[in-house]
Fold each of these.
Amino acid sequence: MFAAVWKAIGMPATKLRSFMGGIHPLKRKELTRERPIEPIPLPGKVVIPLFQPAGKEPRPIVSKGDIVTAGQVIAEPQDGRGVFVHSSVCGKVKKVGRFPFPAGFFVTAAEVEVGEGEKPFPPMERTPEGPEIIEIIRNAGIVGMGGAGFPTHFKLKGAREAGVEFLLVNGAECEPYLTADYRVLMERTEDLISGTKLLLKASGAKRAYVAVESDKKDAYDRLGGMVPDDDVIKPVLLRAKYPQGSEKQLIEAVLKREVPAGGLPADVGVLVQNVSTACAVHDAVAFGKPLIERVVTLSGTPLKRPGNYLVRIGTLIEDLMEAAGPDRDNIGKVIVGGPMMGFSMSRLDVPVARETTGVVLLSRVEAEVEPSHQSCVRCGKCLYVCPMFLPTSEICIAVERGDYALAVKLGLENCMECGSCAYVCPSRRPLVQWIKTAKLFAKKVKK
Amino acid sequence: MSPKLAISISPHIRTRETVPRIMWTVVLVLLPAGIFSCLNFGWHVLSVIAACVITAVVLEALIQKLRGKEITISDGSAVLTGLLLAYNLSPALPIWMAIIGTVVAIAIGKHAFGGLGHNIWNPALVGRAFLMAAYPGAMTTWFPSRLAGAVDAMTYATPLNVIKQSLPQSLPSLGEMFFGIRGGCIGETCCLLLLLGGLFLLWKGYITWHIPVAFLGSLACFAVIASGGKPQAAVFAICAGGAMLGSIYMATDYVTSPVSVRGMLIFGIGCGIITGVIRKWGGYPEGVCYAILLMNSATPLIDRLTLPRAYGEAKRKVWV
Amino acid sequence: MRALREFTKGIIERNPIFVLMLGLCPALAVSTSVTDAVGMGLATTFVLVCSNVSISIIRKIIPYRVRIPCYIVVIASFVTIVKLALNAYLPDLYKSLGIFVPLIVVNCIILGRAEAFASRNGVGLSFMDGLGMGVGFGLGLVLMGFIREVIGAGELCHLRVLWKGYEPMLVMTQPPGAFLVLGFLLGLFNLLHRNLKKSKD
Amino acid sequence: MDFGELMSIFIGVILVNNFVLSRFLGLCPYIGVSRDTSSAAGMGMAVIFVMTMASAATWFVYNYMLLPNENNVLYLLFRKMIPGITPESFDLSYLETIAFILVIAGLVQLVEMFIAKFSPALYRALGIYLPLITTNCAVLGVAQLNIAFSGQPFSLLKCVVQGAGAGVGFMIAMLLLSGIRERLELADVPPSLKGVPIAFICAGLMSLAFFGFMGLKI
Amino acid sequence: MNQIVIYSVVVLGGMGLVIGLLLSVVSRALAVKTDPNVQKILEALPNVNCGACGYPGCQGFAEAIAKGEADPAACAPGGQQVADEIAEIMGLEAREKEKVVAIIHCRGGSKCGKAATYYGLESCTSANLAGFGPSACVFGCLAMYDCIHACPFDAICLDENEMAVVDREKCVACGKCIEICPRSLIELVPVDKNYHVLCSSKDRGKAVTSICEVGCIGCTKCVKACPSDAIHMEEGLAVIDYEKCTNCGACAEACPVGAISFFAGKEVSTV
């Protein structure tokens, strides 16, 4: 129906695959797009969070006063889902305790004072096989680096057991401002291909697709030039649309498969991994290098040198910002993550975690929020853009009146908080905020 | 120390479209039709429009003040309600009746339910239907079209009246009807201007095509079938009466129409068919207003029946 | 003293229409003019008083389980009496009240008072209760009738009361007007009630 | 039987002379049970059912027991015992109100018990609404309308059609109002208008919308 | 005339007889079991089936009451009398008061500094999601009063510092506020204990004093002052063991900032 109308009003027929719903926000990627990855100087101290979103928090095995080297294990998993955590720098442990975390809560973390003694990681001698790779990934502490931070080894194990057909390597990077994955695609293409092949081996999938949005066509072309046409790895170009990078939407766009509610991608025979994760897998298998650093986009108008920086895990946001030359008086808002789903910060002593994709700074003008509590005018715009097809307006009206049971019935739990609805809402209703709050309340009420 | 950071929950960027922006745009694209009407029916029209708009704004401010709520007359919704109501009135209506209609529209149609976003029926149409029931005589006294060269103001009928009552008067040509050279309500005559405005709103994304197309389409189909297969009956049905004004500007009212695409199609088709039925068999010559009001009443049910199927869910229970 | 209280409570404090919200069908249907409203009010009061009294008298001999059918038969008999009497003596009123005369049988207030009051109280109190409720109901009807007739026709008891050029707002005598007037009157009573409560606190 | 005439009775009683919105019948349950859509649907179904049954039952009672004609049951019973008696002696039409209410009450009770026994599912859906209908003036109203104000009594078929149509009209009005009221639960209605008052205002505006069908002739 | 009376009696009596017999036979044949409580309530109700209560008839209303969903006083025709009868059937009794009450371990309120400007819903849970909320103390009360809205007994009110405090007379220890508080500041404590640590900050002394006048700085003076050894330090915060506490008040006297205070009713008083 849409396609027919699309054609009828004279729009060019497009072959770009995509999903239903979604929005086209102002991307602002040009700020950092052409900035190559560049390491930042080592900070004075790092705070390495032990947090992981699934399973029990790993148990610290170092204590105050211990001397650690970069890549040394500082925490052990407590259950099958957990991963090892490594020190990202050489130095002395100053404290193991509760520290603030970007998502807005406290987690156990180890504070390490940076010292001397960095050593390069030598290449490994042999290439391991499937299950062995999974073990290496776990030992290297690799988690999903696209933002969710879900343990990669656990996902791979599940995928292997379910017998997935396809591996999707997610290079969509649909969040405005962020270009870290794009730079990884451009600069570490070979590592990416190698990492993808390792992931294929580990998961048992037959084919891999590397999904890239159409605004990163040069990355797509570069990738296409480096893999033969008959290879198991195939790049695909997707329409640039937010939230194209969300797992379910990516699967829908590439494979036209729908993940059932409450289900996993493995249920439809798919495994999704981020491009940075694939590179980290390559590093782990080829060099035995654990996940101790990552590429972070540091962008926004209040910065003099926005760019893509290679950052040690645990670097504090304030140290990170220094590298890009911030205009301190003009910083209105500091967002960890992208502006659509990221967390704004009231304090800057929070660390870069393994899943931190970027830090976006908004100027004072950009940060102004119209605090509107206008009632819903039922324009339905939130319904058209919702990639999960939820009746967002109805859910939020229910939440506004405190009827959490109704909100849950309408699909509250299915919301992934992508923020498309709140982006388009002409009444400026705090839709995502209601939903996030209601999810907490609904949980409490249920109990 | 640098100034305090702002914190809020994602998303941290927003589109520029806001409700006031949309409302004022609609008001703006409606203005040409009003100016045309002044030329067509004389300057009394202007005073009717002014009376409606001013009453609407003043009353809204008054009610919000009495209820101790924030006064939101600057969002343009009251202006739009007043304007749309005026466009739905006869050009010959006394000013005091227009004011009564506006009071009903704003006080009963809108604020009895809690104001913008809470009303069930389109306030302007509530005002019109009320006036129609309260003062049927005055509401069905028409001015002739000046542009058609008429000077005799004594007896005049709209094209739909001519059809309904089998009057000996001659009908305007379809072309004249499209350009609005005919009698009728203040804002409904010039289909061209209304259509252009509608296309502009469509282009801006303020309305979607579903309701107007479903409305006019089903009305046209009904007219063709009812007339025994004459295609020009479709054009007549769309251009006569308030179908164009109603389908583009009133039925698409965000608050009182369904939110989902399927719901909007059902809503539009329902409006079209009810309009056709009232025109063909009913006691009134025109049924657009009642059709929209009736479908407004059904909107909560339609909304409920057409909730989108959530991603990844096989089937949604209808009666939640 | 108690009797007086039973009488007065039905008029404002527990007004059948505006507070208990019972017997709304006739309240809307026959309040197009004050004349009809008075007629209906009297007819209902008569039935209410008679049924209350007779049910109070026979309340001890009616088996509990079949009490409702018994009440209905008693009420229906009085309604039939009213109906025949109206038909004989006030045929115009009878005509304009239409089917709402026989429908007094199913007016919720009558059965409600029979069950809630007359079946538990003595004859005298039941009489006063019926009278109070009936008068309250009648006054409610007259209030609605007054508003609707004056605005909707410019008349009172079919006599012109407003100025000559007054254009009657026809909708008031029609169903939408009835609903709206009742809706807003109920709202007004709510408001008064709450203000009273507030001033008491 | 003229199908067109039946159709016009049916449509007329739904749209033009809707029992609730233009005749003010059955307002208590209309306002009382329209708070949520599922009870409104249940009540509506029950009303359609009972109105249709009651129309038929009261037609038989009226024509065969109360009206003075050749088929009067009493006349047939007594004409052998009392010689020279005419049907006119059995004019009991003034008893209509009492007879109807008795018949309806009995009917409803009977239906309720049958459903409770034979279809517990249907009973759960409809049963609880059935007792509410005995004292619903819409049912007695349809019985009265069938006999009283149509010049001459309707035929059985017309009565049943009118009864069913009235029920359908009741259900439509009720469903619409229930949907509206569910939405208003979440609206910022002025406190003094909350609840029943706003429901009446809604009914008024719905009745205004139904004006569009005034004079509808098919 | 005489005849017509007889016929009326015959018709009505006959109809009544037939219908009554039919119904009684059928009701025997088709008996269905029901909840005795519902039956009792139904008998107490007026059985007018007016629908004014909002339930589908008296049966529906009775079932709703039996389930505890409906308010017995909602019956308009029945009035108070019926409501009382139903209450008797249902055996509703006044809830007994528990021996514990809630206490909020923070007294910052407006005394707590602001670190950021918060835009969004007035709700602690919401604000806490937005980067630790606006208040400078990440442990203390956000002062957007989710607990006050959550309390079904109106037992939480504001003091002069815009800080939420529990009214001990009204509190029934239902635990709703404890569930809702995003920073877990609320705890149930014995009602007869009057000295409490009204702070939850685990920060160090300097960090606390820079943002809050009444925050625990972890000086351990109270631990030393306590004669019954009821206070110990947990991550730089004093904690009272209520089993050992004797209500002597030595800790409150020793506290240099007033983080341990006398609190027995609505008012906090610093010793």
Amino acid sequence: MNPWDLIMNNAPALAIAIPLLGAFVTPLINRAGRKAMLVWVIAVLAFTEFIALLLVYQVNTYGIQVYVFGANPHTLTVPPDSGGIPVRIIFTIDGMSAFTALISATLGLVVGIYSVGSEKFQTAQEKFFALLLLLVVGMMGMALTGDIFNFFVFLEINSLAAAALVSYHLNKGKAVEAAFKYAVVSSIGALMILFAIAILYGEYDALNMAMIAQRMYQTGFSTYDMIAMTLILVTLAMKCGAVPMHYWVPDGYGEAPGGTSAILVVASQASLYGLFRMSFTVFGLSANTSSLGWFMIILGLLSMFIGVTMAFLQHDIKRLMAYHAVSQTGYMLLGVGVGLATLGTAAFNQYGLYAMEGGIFHIINHALYKGLLFLTAGAIIYRVGTSDLNKMGGLAHSMKFTAVFFLIGAFAIAGIPPFNGFASKLMIYESVYQLNPFLAIVAAIVSMLTLASFLKVFHSAFLGPKIYDVKEVPKSMLFAMSILAFFIILFGIFPNIAIHYLVAPAAHALANPLGYITKVLGGGA
Amino acid sequence: MLADYLIWIFIIIGLIFNGLGVIGLLRFPDVYTRLHAATKATTFGSIFTSLGVVTLAFWKLYETGNTANLVLSIHTLIAIACLLLTNPVGAHAIARAAYRSGVKPKMAVVDRLEEVNQDD
Amino acid sequence: MIFNLPFITVIIVMFFGFYAMVFRRNLIKVVIGLDLVESAVNLFLVSLGYVKGGVAPIYTSAPSTHMVLPTPQALTLTSIVIGVATTAMLLSFCMVIYKHYGTLDTRKVRRLEE
Amino acid sequence: MRNVLMSIVFLILLAFMLYVAINPGDFGSSTGEHFVFGAPKFTDMDNYFIHNGQNQTAANNIVTSIVFDYRGFDTLGEASVLFTAVLGVGVVLRLLGGGRNDE
Amino acid sequence: MIEDIIQILVLIGMMITAYLSVKSRDLMECAILLGVFSFLLSLEFFILQAPDVAIAEAGIGAGLTTAIFVMAVRKTTRWEVEE
Amino acid sequence: MMSKIVRTQANFLYPFILIFGFYVVAHGHITPGGGFQGGAVIATGVALVAVAYGYDTIKKWIKKTHLTAAEGIGLLCFIITAFIGLSTSFFYNFLANSGLIFGNRVPYGINPGYLNTAGTLPIMNLAVGIEVLGGLSVIIMYMMAYGREVKQ
Amino acid sequence: MISIWLVAALILMICIFLAIARAVAGPTLADRVVALDTINTLIVAIMIILSVVYSEVIYVDIAIVYALLSFVATLYMAKYIEGGF
């Protein structure tokens, strides 16, 4: 068997195994010197990105992909002698999974390149890069897996790696305290998910998502399902930073080193993916999707409004951006929530699907521009040494590129036309308006407040007299930022590329849980 | 039937010693006496209950010839050895630590260890 | 009723853990609460798979099929190792926090941070 | 005030969960009596493991065959969780006695 | 019957130790009671016919976690509320 | 450093714990136990020596870098074993029932240890055992090491 | 014949409860550690007895692991009391 076939056949497994292998080898390879380690890490991240692209290609070409670990052959989901049940761990990759995996791998690569410059003077760098790889593994695993316990394991990898990364710059204990908070919140959330998994297992004797969904549909939605659903959805909403449970977000994002906040954004988007996956695929057939959808919509509204209001009060640049991240998460919840609320009715084809596409498009846009903003914030802190907005000023004189990138990010997050934020926000406004005009009005107001807030930041950080005599940041950091800026402008001018190849397959995949179940279980349902 | 009686005797001895040890743990006045009662007596008692198991295993081996019982007896003997090795040392470590941390025996009149230490 | 006692224990221990995590302000106490919750979930998993009169899922003697369910035990093994990893990491965080702030009281830590 | 409110919420939740734990409802209704609890209406996955585990993986211990074969990928994830935790401990404790002095 | 009584006693012991380890102000006492809780949990796994899990809990929960807790208390502070 | 009795006992007990840990690891597919449990047992042995002799003595014998390397190597063995089955599928148990090394069937019943069985399971057990041994020991070592310089 | 083992296990279990009482009440830390040590020994005995009850030979392994490892926990406690590390 030639290597190309091997890669093509085993792409889902390699997407996890290669970065994992990379993480295991990184501390060992560090003995050969820092350069070798960096080359290794970047190579592994690039290969992961390649595999993620390959997955998107496969899904777009051949439909939903399954990969069964340890089976012979690897597509044998249901062993013939088992009576129609899947017994092994199955990776199920549909449009949404591939979409999330692509975002994770892309941001991982970008942050990896960025950190080559920004972490140059730290000790224990091999641990930092190994943790970065593990975080990528956690996000990719959460996106690709079709097994509910496997989801828990990857969630745990994700949380622990993220907590360790947050504490990387010890910063007089502040970072460690933020990391402690993050780790406690994540662990308790993961334990609740494990509890819910145990309930679901005890009821259906299955750990595969498709199998659970099918059996839940057959036997009806019981009280125990209700408990499990509440635990899972509330926990995942907490992990993605929706408003009543958002208190860990500013600390975690604010204290994370350099560009790592950018990848933490994607880490919480992986939880968002989990939220969508659970509510659409696992519980979507049996539970009352309308009330679930309204639950998401209300969470989204609260997040949007409170996030942006709190952001006005901040004078720490990273905390401010963190509150904006909460606020932007609201848009995604709103868009997809409208889709879920109208799922199965005539209104779905009218505007629900469009709203979902808007929400999902917003995920990738948010990852790109919030990633860019956090990277610029990291660049500012790298040169200036403080994150307090009141102490900054006049940076545009010396850090021209950073200023331009910051402006691109700020315009994108506020939804100014030539950038990508405009496209997705427009989709959300148009479709949400048809469900309830009030929602669209709130979204528009929040968008304006966001613009105001970021103009304030730009004014206080970059304009004004020259205070600091600093140089431009290293080239690797600029290169990483320029990648993101390029994609922001690309998706802003040609949104159809993203929608056609990434967003629409994802939205259709989410809206069609029966296709998912049929692919795994092979008929029936 | 000899084995039955033997097992009964072992178990009863073991239980009595365990019970006495725990009662001593509850009733004695200070750390050292409690340590004395608890560790010594419970080690002794646990070994005797385990010896009952060994007797049963040998008896069954003799009766049925099933080698599983041999494994049982050997493993139980290993467990007894572990108990014998670890417990006294643990007790010693606790007593020494308690003495060093300044816990005084309640009703003791002479403290030879202190005298020795003073001589140094 | 009496056979539900493991589950009642699970709920009660879990709520003690939550109590420690929410109402106690010491960071190590929070970790203790987390440990309790995790133990409770482990117990829940294992007792979920228990079959009355079943034997452990290991073929030692004659091939018996009346066994307790093996999957929850496998899941619990995973969960235990994850738990010790989390505990170790959180406790090392505690040590560093104490080093820098001189206290483990959450409210004092927050005040010192300002 | 906040504490009182939280306590009330806690107690209500506790009572609810206890009620659920005491009255398992339809959680064990079908095959009932020989399970303590749970009594999954379905036991086919575990039965598959019990019946075929020894033949397919040739291990006497079914738990090990599940941990390392059927759900081996979980074990890989779990091992990497431990690896992550060790890296995290190393990162956090790297300054005082953790890193430079010994290496 | 007697098996059930043993199991009930183990479970009640677990509840008691869990409660006391939450209530106590002395973190060392908490660590010790958590150790006892872990031992009883291991015994409960034993009774529930899960030997693999019982070994893991005995090794990790009872041995290592107690050691780690003791070291963490040593490196920080023993009393929950200072002053 | 603890008293001489404890140290002597630790000397005596450590090989015993080591042997028993390897027994638990190697017989993982026959008796209860396996990689995690055995690794934890051996790591507790390391913890025993560490507590008996004190950190200052023990750091000359056991280097943290060696333990980290052991952890990495164990994980590498594990994932490479999984990779070898890649031509069929990841984690494919290519040795079970094949008649090669480790490829025999376990007979029913109590046995003195037919170790030559169960395909890739013993290899994975051993790999995970090494990994867990390294990981847990290095956690113990880090926590013992932390904050020592300040006290002196 | 089985019942005597069960009765023995029950009595040992009650003994454990008494030891827990000492672990809770103990005025000094050393008292609690003594109680912990006692509980370890008793649990090892119970495990050995129960493995006879369940007639599973391999369960004795757990007791061995237990006897070996609880010792380490005791040593750590003792070292804490001594003021070590």
